[in-house]
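A quick aside before the break. I want you to see a complete sequence-to-structure record at least once, exactly as it would be stored in a machine-readable document. Don't worry about memorizing anything.
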Amino acid sequence: MIAWFAFRSPAKIAASVSPIDAMKRQSETGFKKRKKNHKITPTWLGWQYCCSNKKKMAYTFSSLLLSGILMFLVFSVLNAIDVERLAVQPYDEGSDLYIRLNSTADEDSTYNLMKDSPFTNEAKEYISQMSGVEHLYEEKMLDCIVYIDDTQDNETELGIQSIVNPDSFQEKIVEGNLPDRNCENTTVPVIVNRKSPYYQELGKKLHVGDSLSGTVDTGFSDIPVTFSVTGFVEDQDTGVVLYTNGEVLDKISEMNCTLTWYICLTDDGSKTDTIREIKEMTNQDNRLYVSVLAEDISSLENYFHNATVIVMVLTVLVSLFSFINLLNTSITNVISRKHDYALLEATGMTKKQIGKTQRTENLIYLVGSFVGSCILGIPMGFILCNRVSQIPGLSYFEYHFPALFMVLYFVAVLLVYSIVNAYQNRLFFKQSVVERIKTAE
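That is the input. The structure line, written in tokens, reads:
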């Protein structure tokens, strides 16, 4: 009896309103505009509900779109880092390891070590004769000063470095030729690296045949020289501006100006033993340190793996707020539209059709933001990675299409879509039609 009386009054109200009048009332209260004689379907209703509050729609859609673009940018950058390419940058001539002067072993840095250099001919011969050693290349270096305006009032400090392997260096020359091995005491033929940021700071546009005045620190004195430009290379992965032949540096230097030995190993399976033997030899001299390519790659992979996990977690947490905002919007919509949905159900719509209306609205937000994120995020990630790769020293950035991230992002969208729909249905169908009709608009 109680249930009968409780249902009698709402039922009379519902019965007193024709389906057409109910739909007209719904049109007036729920939507501002709609086309006349439009066939009312759950999909159409979902679109109309989504567009009924344009401010809320713009806010929810923008938060989802921006979070998607942010994730595309972050994952594009993380996916663009080539760890092996980064690790191999300081290893010239495809070397597997190098031995370099340990400047931290002396307070006055590298020059004091060169004056008492551990790079002796005996040590070089010993390493070259080791089983497993294929090649040993020397890199020499001296400090110099270049006068920008051919006067001592405007000068810049640079380093002049030897060409490690003339044969491979020849392939890098984009203009001009290799410098001569023979030179006068006051003229130093040089190759100029136009992509070095330090060359850009000179503010000069040099050509083959041009010359620059300056001085070279030979270890015990500074001698005035003229740098004669014989060619150009374009290597943005190094800050070195001036290159010349090692014989030229030996001729003007008053000390052993060798900075690094680059060692190439054979692929006969003895690399580990050879590296161990070289380390044992150099560990006795704190003026030297050894760097091994395989160890650097492993170290960088661990570092970037940890960094990637941290950045991904932070990015996902930031993006999670947009999905929480969508969930909040969906809950608010269910609560505010209980009366509207009840009238629709009273006029003949099934619960399945009402659920489809809700799903359509959620689908508009999620699919729309996913497609928008792909349309904007993919080209923005491509442009960002290309711009970063043009920065000197960052050529190891190479864009790769984030296919795995797209799949994961799409799966996340489907998961959020399912969760939101399930929560909406659970919240909506807790009350009967009569209770929802009695709810104030």
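Two observations worth writing down. The longest strand covers residues 133-147. Residues 293-336 form the longest helix (44 residues). We'll return to this after the break.
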